[in-house]
Amino acid sequence: MVKVSAGVLLFRRPRDGSVEVLIAFPGGPFFARKGDGAWTLPKGEYGPDEDAKAAAGREFTEEIGTPPPAGEWIDLGSVTQRSGKVVRAWAVEGDLDAGAIVSNEFEMEWPRGSGVRRSFPEVVRAQWCAPAEARRKLNAAQMPFVDRLEAALAQAPPPSS
Length: 161
Fold this sequence. Notes:
By secondary structure, this protein is α+β, with helices and mostly antiparallel strands. Helix content is about 20%, strand content about 30%.
């Protein structure tokens, strides 16, 4: 059975008229020494009986520590990661302090085979960045979400001041 995840790509528009997106760095020992290519949008798995959009909001809340802002959700479609996992995403405009995130934790045996269970945060840090930087840092399969957001914003009327 294919694993499915849903997430939110939060974006903001600084005063200079540019766009920035919020990306997250996963916690746990597998990502500890990784850098570019390991970042992700806040996301998580959901079951066959769960609404993907509701799951995206729940996962954002769990990994960032605050619910996604109210507002229009832009459907960014789905991508398939190298692992075969399908990720569904929406973008929503809002702002938050990336340095103040509070992620939930997961537990796993570490080191493997040791019998010792340890807890790790799902997300260890978040960062606002320009689309070009996001494309460099994100898991390669998730880069199209940034492209799709930019395309959707280019077609939308400018925000009222």
